[in-house]
Amino acid sequence: MPPGGAALEVDSVSVSYGKFVAVESVTFSVRAGECVAVIGPNGHGKSSLVTAVAGLVRRGGTVRVFGQALPVGNPRAAVLAGLVLVPERRHLYPELTTRDNIMLGSYSRTRRLRASQAWDDVSGVIDMFPELGRLLEQKAGTLSGGQQQMVALARAMAAAPRILLLDEPCLGLAEAVARRVYDWLGEMTATDMTILLVEENPAHAILVADRVVRMYKGLVGGPEVTSP
Amino acid sequence: MSEFLNLLAAGLTSGAIYGIFGACLAVWFRVCNVLNLAVGDFAMLGAIGTARLVQTDHLPFAAGVVVVLAAVGLIAWIFDRVVLHIAFDRGLGAHGIVGVFFYTFGLSLILEGAARAVFGTDVYSAPAIWPGPALAIGDVHVQRAGVLVIALAIASGLILWAYLRFTVSGRAASACGESVLGSRIVGIDSAMFRRRIFIMTAALAALFGVVESPLTGFTYLSGPTISLIGVVAAGFAAFRKPGRAVLAGLAIGVTEAMLGGYVSTTYNDVLLYAILFGIIILRPEVLGLGAEPA
Question: Which residue range is the domain that position B6 belongs to?
Answer without folding.
Answer: 2-287
